[in-house]
Each structure stands twice: as structure tokens, then as C-alpha cells.
Amino acid sequence: MAQSFIRIQTHLMREYYKDFSKYSKGKKPEKKVAWVTAFTPVEILETLGISYYYPESYAAVIAASEKEQDLMQASDRDNLSRDCCSYSCCYNGSIDMQEGPRGVPPKPDVLIATNNQCNTLPNWWNVLAVKYDVPLIVIDYPGENMERDAAFDYVNEQHKSLIRKLEELSGNKFDEGVLNEFVENSKKSVSAWNCVLKQIPLKDGIVTLLFDDISFLITARCKAETSEMYGFLIDEIKSMPDADFSKIPVFWLGYPLWWHADRYLSECMDSYRIVGANYLTWWSLDYSGINVYEKLFTAYNYTFLNLQQRSRDKKLSEQVRASGAKGAIVLHNKSCKCDFVSARNLELPQAELDIDMIDRTYLNIDNAKCQIDLLKETLCTA
Ligand code: SF4
User: Fold this and answer.
1) Which atom of ligand 1 is the closest one to the Cα of 336?
2) Distance, CA 116 to ligand 1 centroid (Å)?
3) How far apart (Å, rounded) are the C-alpha atoms in residues 230 and 236?
């Protein structure tokens, strides 16, 4: 992998993890700390010099390090039932046991949750707020359920209130020009990432790489280096071998399997090539607007998971059509019902798998293989 790509990636990871217990040697972080959900307007936090961490992302890292079972059991015993979203079980087990592949993130000074993704998150953040006894800020995004102008006023007031509260917490003065710079960085990161995504149907096996590399669009989308890093990634991907076009093109509908070395069921999919994955487009946020406040509103009010079903179906159908997929592997995810419904109304043969993105034990591999083989039969005889 090209040195320039690795250099930026290493730098971003070192910055993100430097205050985790494994690296901080007991030192308190220099900045105030927020724990945030994956679609929080972090550009505001960056502007006010607040560090932010994503419990959901860390749960994925824990599963990728094969440490999720002990932590989920600990959570089941003392905290959350295994029926809850596995991200929450895995992460809460980690903070209860004070264990994780990179230690645990620094304690939060504030918790920020949004409902533009699911309603589990504000509830999970409530549990965290009780545990840490720190302020909880919940941002309510009405999505398409409110007329745009009214929705803008409603969301913008919450963003401005967030700015005021974080000014007070951090002691730093808000600067609109700086916020604008971070929003522009995010726009550039999204644009570079969208160019990366165009390579999926053309190259073999890059979906594993991209399931991991999208993490920077989540945790570092408003950093200046992120778009540059994705630029290097495109060059790298272009130098890889072309896809084997004799394989059946399929769309992956659902989360990456964080516990799997390849992040998808590669052992059952020899005859297939994955030409698209909806998860990889969730953070392609649309920062359009006439000023920085409208840009933030558009990006975070209209996230894919916050759209009405009709809009989701339309977007998803366009993506699937553009990818050239002939069928879909659909994950009926134990943790995440809002992810599963996004597969509705696709006029495409599908293999539907009962699975979980964190809990590797929630899978009957023979059933999954059977479903995937049946899909192949359907597509080959169609
Ligand atoms: S996996 Fe689904 S239920 Fe869990 S936090 Fe994410 S969106 Fe919410």
C-alpha cells in the first residue's frame, strides 16, 4: 500500500486513539471529551476544540479483534440484555470491564446523541448518562416528516443551542469562519470517498478494504487530511487487478460483518463479486446550502436512515441499478431493524441471511450457505 496513504492513516489513527487508556498512561486528556453517535454534527465540536469518540465504531473494532463475546456476556450479566443492539452490548461490556483492544476511551464530559439513524441510540445514551452522571444532549432531526423551512428552523435552533452549551463546557469562543472550514473539509472528504466508491464494480475484493476505510469518513470526516488520504486510496485501488467479470455481480445490503476477517461471508461467495454496498454510502452526506448552518442542516437532517421509506427505496434502487448487480445479499440483522427495512421493495432476487454484525454466534452458516446457493441457482436459470 502506498506510503502516503499509510502515513496519513497512521497519523489520523494515532490522533484518534491517543487518549485511550492503553496509550494515555493515566494522563487526563487536554481537551473536553464528548461521546457521540455516528451522525452527530462533529464539525461543531471540532470548531470548539472538543475531542469526540464513537462508541458504535469502537464496538466494531472490538469485534474485529475477536473480543466481543466476553464483553457481551459481561454486559448481559450486569447491564444490557443481549437482545439490545450488539453495538451497545459490546461497548457497555468494554466500559464495565475496562477492557478493549486499545483500552477504553477517556470518560465523557458530555454525551451527544442524535435520532437521525435510529431510536436505540438516544436510549443507549441515556444509560450512559446515568452511568457517568454527565449532561446528555439529544438532537432531534425530523427528516422528511416536516416541511423543509420549518425543519430548518427547528434543527438550526438545536445546532445553535449545541454551540452555546459547548462554548460553556469548553471555555472556547465559537468562530463561524472556522466552522465553515471544517464543513468544507467534510464536503471534500465525502467527494473523495464517492470517487473511491466508483471503483467497487471494477476491482476484485476491494469491499473488505472499503468496509474498514470508511471508518475515517465517520471519525475524521472534517479533518483536512481525510480527502487527501482518500485521493491516495483511489490511486492505490486503480493499480489493483481488474474484477473477474465472469462472477455474478451482487449488492451487499447491510452492515459489514465486523467479526469476519473479510467483513462479508467470503467462504460462501466464491461465485460472486460484490459490486456495491449500501453501508458504504451512509456517510456520503450532502452538505449543500447557502450558508454553513443550512449545510449542516441538510447533511444531518436528511441522512439516509432518516428518510422516509419511499425516498430510501428510490435512492437504493438507483444505487443498485448503477452498480450492475443482478441480485442482493440482504442481512436480516438481529441488532438493527432499521437497516433491514432499507432492503424492501427492491425488485431483485435476494438471499436473506439471519445474522448480526457484532455477535458471530448468531449465524447458522449452513442455512446462510443454502440461501446464497439458492440465489445463485435463481440467477443462473433466470
Ligand atoms: S446498529 Fe442499528 S440499532 Fe444499533 S445503533 Fe446502529 S442504527 Fe441503531
Assistant:
1) 2
2) 11
3) 10
Extract the C-alpha cell encoding 29.
486528556
User: Over 70: is that where the pLDDT of 229 sits?
Assistant: yes
Q: Is 338 in the pocket of ligand 1 (CB under 6 A)?
A: yes
- Poorest-pLDDT segment among 175-179, 227-231, 234-238: 234-238
Is the CB–ligand 1 distance for residue 86 below 6 Å? no
CA of 379 to the centre of ligand 1 (A): 31
The residue written with cell numbers 493515566 in the block is: 26
- Site to substitute for ligand 1 among 36, 86, 117, most atoms within 8 A of C-beta: 117
Q: Which residue has the cell 473536553?
A: 32
Mean pLDDT of 176-201: 97
**Residue bearing the bigger pLDDT, 267 or 83:** 267
Give the length of the chain: 382
Q: What's the predicted TM-score (pTM) here?
A: 0.96
Mean pLDDT of the chain: 94
Per-residue pLDDT at 319: 93
pLDDT of residue 342: 65
pLDDT digits (tens, 9 = 90+) for 175-184: 999 999 999 9
pLDDT tens for residues 91-126? Answer: 999 999 999 999 999 999 999 999 999 989 999 999
